[in-house]
Amino acid sequence: MSPRAEPAPRRIAILGNPNAGKSTLFNALTGLRQKVGNYPGVTVEKKTGFCDLPSGRRAEVIDLPGSYSLQPASPDEMIVRDVLLGLQSDTPPPDLIVFVVDATNLDRHLYLALQVIELGRPLLLVLNMMDLAHARGQRMDERALERALGVPVVGISAAKGDGIAQLRELMDRDVEPSTRHFRQFPPYLQRVLDRLEHRLPRHATLPDRARHDLAVAMLLDNGEDDALASHVPPEALDDARTVARRLDEMSPGWRADDVAGRYEEISALLAESVVAPGERGDRRRDAIDRVLTHRVHGPLIFVVLMGAVFQSVFAWSLPAMNLIDLAVTRIGTIVGHAMPDGALRSLLVDGVIAGVGTTLTFVPQIAILFFFLCVLEDSGYMARAAFIMDRVMGKVGLSGRSFIPLMSSFACAIPGIMATRSIDNRRDRFTTIMIAPFMSCSARLPVYALLIGAFVPNRWVGFVTLPGITLFAMYFLGIVAAVVIAFALKRTVLRGGRPLYVMELPPYRMPSWRSVLITVRERSLLFLQKAGTVILAISVVLWFLASYPKGGEAVRALELQRAVAVVSGDSVQAHTLERQIAGAALEHSFAGQAGRFIEPSIAPLGFDWRIGIGLITSLAAREVMVSTMATVFNLGNVDNNVQPLRQSLRVATDARTGARAYTPLAGVSLMVFYVLACQCMSTLAVVRRETNSWRWPIFMLVMMNALAWLASFAVFQGGKLLGFGA
Amino acid sequence: MNAAPRNDAAAERALDTLSSGERGVIAALDCEPSVARRLMELGLVPGTEIVVIRRAPLGDPLEVSVRGVRLSLRRSEARRIHVAPR
C-alpha cells in the first residue's frame, strides 16, 4: 500500500434494543451520507453511512436492526446475530460495536448488551437519553459501570446532539474487548452446550467465537430459525433437537433458565452504579396516555389525526404542485419554441418533459406524507395506535404488530411488506403481506390527485373540502378491502393459532427534526430515482408507442377535410378537426391498438381505450398512469404546450361521438380500480422474495385485479342506475 | 415456569384479573416454552414486580409496566401469567 493511500475505513456497527434511539444516533453521526439497501437473500433493510472521526479517519457506520436478544425470534434478529457471529458473508463483524441503551431503562436494555459484551468484540456502551434520565432524577456512576462491564461507557442525548463529539472521540480509539463473562448457563445446560459445540465442524466459515452461540441457537431453535440450516451441518441440528426434546421432558423450564440468571446479574450490577430515581418520572407520559389511549378520546383522536394527515397531504402540497406545474409548462414551451418541429422535439416535449415533469409534481405530497409518518413513529404515537388498534386487528386474526407495516404501506407497500419481518408469526406475516398492497401507497396518490383534481369540485363541506373527503374515502376503501381479505385468508389458507403479542410502548419524545428530515429526503429521493429511471424510460417507450406507426386512413381523410376548412377560412372547424386528427393518429398507433384491444373488458367500468393504455403501463408502477396520460393527451393537443393534465382529462372527448369521454362517475370508478388493483411489479417481486414462492405473488395479482374489476363495475353500473352517470 | 415450586398458588391470580393500577409479583409463566423465554427476555422474569397500567380503549390489550418498561400484552397472554400479591 502506498504511504498516501487512505486507510480502510473503520467499520462500526450501531446496535441496541428497539426504541433505544439507534436511528437518531445513526442520523446524527452520518447525516446525509447514507445508503439504504438490503441484506442479500432477505429483505431486511441494511443502512450504512459514513462519518469522519476526529483523527481524520473515516468510519463506515452500519445501523443494525433493533433486537431484544441474540437468540433470534425474527429475521431481523437473525441478521444481527449472523453479523455479530461472523456468519453474514456480505457484512463482516465490525471493528467496533456501538451499543446504544436507553439510560432510563438500563435494566432491560442491558440484557442484550451483556450477551453482546460476552462475544468479546470491541464495544462502546452508549447511554442514550441522558437528558431524560437526569430530568427524572436518575444518577449514574458511569465509571462504576465501566468497571463492572469492562467496556468504555459514554452518556449522550442523540436527539439533542449532546455528547456526540465525545462519542466520536471514543469511536476513534482502539477499544480493548471486554473479557467479562456474566451469568452462565446452569451446569447441566453448559455440559449439553459444550457437547453440541464439539459436534460443530472447525472450518474457516465458522469462527471459533460463533461456536458457542450457535450451539445455544441450535438448542433453543423451535424450527423457525431459517438461517441456522445454512451454518451448521444437518446431523448437528438433528442432534440438538433430540437433546432439546429430552430436556423438555426432564426439566420443562430449561429454555428460559439462563434468562432469570442474567437479570439477577444485571440487578446486582446496577445496584452498584445507578441511583434509581425515588419515583419513576412517568407522570408526563401517563398524563398524555390518559388522553391518547382514553376509552373515548383515544380512538377519536386517532381517527381525527389520520384524517388531518390526509387532508394536509392534499392541501399543503397544492401550492408547491402548482409551482412545479407552472415551471414544467414553461420549460416545455421554451424547449418547444427553441427546437425545429420534428420527431426529436416531439420526443423531448411530449415524452421526456411531460412524463417526468408530471411525476415531479407529486413529490411535495410524498414528502409531506412521509414527514407525518416519520413524526408519528418517532414521537411514540405509532405504538399507541397499535395499542388502540390491536383489538380491531385481532378481529381479523392479526395483531397490533401488523398495524405498523400496514401503516407504512400507505407510503409504499414495499417497505411495508419488508417491515412485516418484525412479525414473528408466519401466518400473520403472510396475511399482512397479502393485504399491505390495499393500503393506498404514495404511488397511487398521484393518480388520486390527478383524478380528484379533474373530477371532484373544490367545494367546502363543513370543515373539510370535497377533494379531502374523496381522498380519505379512497384510503378508507383500501382499508375495508384489506380487512375483508385478511378475514377470508385467516379462515382459509392461513388458518392457525393466535401468536404471542407483546409490544413495547416507548415514552413520548419530541422527534429529532434533523432525523425526520433525513428520512423524508431519503424516501423522496428513492421515489424520484424511480421517477427518474423507470418513469422516464416508460415515458419514452410510450411516446414511441403512441407516435408510431404514423398515418392511417382516418387521419388522411381528416387532414383533407381540415385543409378544406382552412382554405374556406373556417378556423373553428379547422380547430375541431385538428383535435380529431390527433385522436385518430393516437388510435392508429401501437398504444391505441393495445388500448382498443382491452377496451371491451373495461368499458363496463366506464373506461375507454385511452384509460386502457394507462392501465397497461400502470403494470410497471401505478404512478406511470399519470405520465402515460400526460403523454397520451399532450400528443392530442394542437399546440406543443404541456397543458395541465387535469384540464385535459376534464374536457377529453370521445373521438367518435364528440361527447365528454369521462364523467365524474367514471373518474370515481377509475380511482376505485386503482385502490384495489395490483399494478406494481416491484410489489410482486418483493412478495416473491418475502414468501420465497411464486404462488403468493400470483395469487395476489389474480385476487386483487378480480376484486378491482368487480368493485369498479359495481360503482360505475350502480352509479348509473342511481342517476350519477351524467 | 410451570415447573417452579409454587407455595402460595392459592393467593396467585392471573395477570388479566388485576385492575388498572394494581401491582403484583410475577410468580410463573404458564405458556409455551419459546413464548415464556421471549417474555422473560423482555423482563417478565418470575420474582419481578409488575403493574397493570391501563387497558386499551376496547378492553384489550393491557398496558403493563415491568422493569421500567411499558409493554402491551394481550389478555390471552396475560391470563397465563400468574402473579402473587406483593
Offer a concise description of the structure.
Chain A is an alpha/beta fold. Chain A is built from 31 helices and twelve strands.
Describe the structure.
The complex is a heterodimer of chains A (about 725) and B (about 90). With about 725 residues, chain A is α/β, with parallel strands linked by helices. Among the domains of chain A are: about 160 residues, P-loop containing nucleotide triphosphate hydrolases (Rossmann fold); about 90 residues, Helix Hairpins, CATH 1.10.287. Helices cover about 60% and strands about 5% of the residues of chain A. In chain A, the strands form three sheets. Chain A has a seven-stranded mixed sheet with strand order 2-3-4-1-5-6-8, sandwiched between helices. A two-stranded antiparallel sheet of chain A has the order 7-9. A two-stranded antiparallel ribbon of chain A has the order 10-11. In chain A, strand 3 and strand 4 form a beta hairpin. About 0% of the residues of chain A have low confidence. Chain B has about 90 residues and is an alpha+beta fold. Chain B has one domain: SH3 type barrels. Chain B contains two helices and six strands; from the N terminus they run E-E-H-E-E-E-H-E. The longest helix of chain B has 9 residues. Chain B is globular. Chain B starts with 12 loop residues before the first strand and ends with a strand. The chains are: A alpha/beta (about 725), B alpha+beta (about 90). The interface between A and B is large, with 52 and 41 residues. Strand 12 of chain A pairs antiparallel with strand 5 of chain B.
